[in-house]
């Protein structure tokens, strides 16, 4: 009798295991991931990204939100389009995916800071390096102003435009009676964001010295 009970018990265990394995084998449906909050998500540059999260639901196991793995590529220091990837795997090995787009956008308010500047200018093949401090102020939502552009004293009227894609344009502008030699200069250039500040590339045409041109790169560090 005991042997019969033992055999019956083993058969029952085998039957349960076979049933479970059969269910797992037939389960080919991946979990459904639902993104919470806005998608796309708009984030002002330099602001902290707090992910709103997501939920995961499996047709066999129910709520498996706790198993979600998040891969966050957002760089809040540089304007651009980034992705947050969500994935969840059920017991049968089926993997579900979802993606949130995060649009990091630039503002003149975010640009309005004090900077340490290392400015390398090359004229006639000879580079010169200037270091100075710079303050950028926001004139309006699309315009910024430099308090001492290109390290010339009295050169506080140069402005730049913040473009929709986050780049910076310095339209051609003339500054008169600037610097220690009280000269007239013409400036034009562009800028991009970096992880530590911005990079301004510009030309400096000395109108008072035969239109001599210097090509410059200025790294602005916040």
Q: Please tell me the CATH architecture of the largest domain by its name.
A: Beta Barrel
By helix and strand content, what is the structural category? mainly beta
- Low-pLDDT runs of 5+ residues are 1-23
DSSP helix fraction: 10-25%
CATH class of the largest domain: Mainly Beta
Q: Main sheet, how many strands, which sense, barrel?
A: 8 strands, antiparallel, barrel
Write the CATH fold name of the largest domain: Lipocalin
Tell me briefly what this model is.
By secondary structure, the chain is mainly beta. 13% of the residues lie in helices and 51% in strands.
Question: Any chance you could write out the topology, listing elements then pairs?
Answer:
Elements: H1 2-26, E1 32-35, E2 41-44, E3 54-58, E4 62-63, E5 69-72, E6 80-89, E7 95-105, H2 108-111, E8 114-123, E9 126-138, E10 143-146, E11 159-162, E12 168-178, E13 183-193, E14 197-206, E15 212-221
Parallel strand pairs: 2-7
Antiparallel strand pairs: 1-3, 3-4, 5-6, 6-7, 8-9, 8-15, 9-10, 10-11, 11-12, 12-13, 13-14, 14-15
Explain what you see.
By secondary structure, the chain is mainly beta. The chain has two domains: 28-105, Immunoglobulins (Immunoglobulin-like), CATH 2.60.40.10; 108-221, Lipocalin, CATH 2.40.128. The chain is 13% helix and 51% strand. The protein has two helices and 15 strands. The chain has helices spanning 2-26, 108-111, and strands spanning 32-35, 41-44, 54-58, 62-63, 69-72, 80-89, 95-105, 114-123, 126-138, 143-146, 159-162, 168-178, 183-193, 197-206, 212-221. It has an eight-stranded antiparallel beta barrel. A four-stranded mixed beta sheet has the order 2-7-6-5, with no helix packed on it. The N and C termini lie far apart (84 Å).
């Amino acid at each position: 009798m005991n042997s019969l009970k033992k055999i019956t018990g083993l058969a029952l265990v085998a039957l349960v295991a076979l049933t479970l394995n059969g269910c797992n084998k037939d389960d080919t449906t991946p979990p459904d991931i639902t993104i919470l909050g806005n998608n796309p998500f708009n984030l002002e540059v330099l602001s902290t990204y707090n992910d709103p999260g997501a939920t995961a639901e499996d047709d066999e196991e129910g709520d498996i939100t706790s198993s979600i793995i998040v891969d966050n590529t957002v760089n809040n220091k540089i304007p651009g389009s980034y992705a947050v990837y969500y994935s969840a795997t059920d017991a049968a090995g089926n993997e579900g995916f979802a993606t949130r787009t995060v649009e990091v956008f630039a503002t003149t308010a975010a640009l309005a800071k004090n900077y340490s500047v290392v400015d390398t200018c090359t004229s006639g093949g000879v580079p010169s390096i200037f270091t100075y401090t710079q303050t950028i102020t926001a004139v309006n939502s699309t315009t910024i102003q430099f308090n001492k552009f290109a390290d010339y004293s009295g050169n506080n009227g140069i402005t730049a435009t913040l473009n929709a894609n986050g780049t910076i344009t310095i339209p051609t502008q003339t500054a008169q009676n600037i610097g220690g030699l009280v000269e007239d200069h013409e400036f034009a250039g562009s800028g991009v964001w970096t992880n530590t500040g911005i990079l301004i590339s510009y030309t400096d045409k000395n109108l008072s010295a035969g239109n001599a041109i210097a090509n410059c790169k200025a790294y602005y560090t916040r």
